[in-house]
What we know:
7-stranded mixed β-sheet; 11 strands; about 0% helix; 4-stranded antiparallel β-sheet; mainly beta; single chain; globular
Amino acid sequence: xxxxxxxxxxxxxxxxxxxxxxxxxxxxxxxxxxxxxxxxxxxxxxxxxxxxxxxxxxxxxxxxxxxxxxxxxxxxxxxxxxxxxxxxxxxxxxxxxxxxxxxxxxxxxxxxxxx
Length: 115
């Protein structure tokens, strides 16, 4: 299993970014996918989850209405569209899959929201 995140960077407050996570090594369309984030000195927290078919999503309260998780099963990729970014969204963002009893993480992508 391999998960590779991309799309992070430096953005001003109120700006937008779209993160991508390319997955391989498993049948992507059969598994729920998640995005987590970890700010310096804090625990890794769940941001959003999407069901295997994409028909069901859930979000942390802190990002509801601003972030959108989506997936393209033909491209084995999950996305996180982040709008109206705030300084408190600054963190390393990871995608995640639970596959055959194991939890897999990507290497993470840094998102910094600052003026």
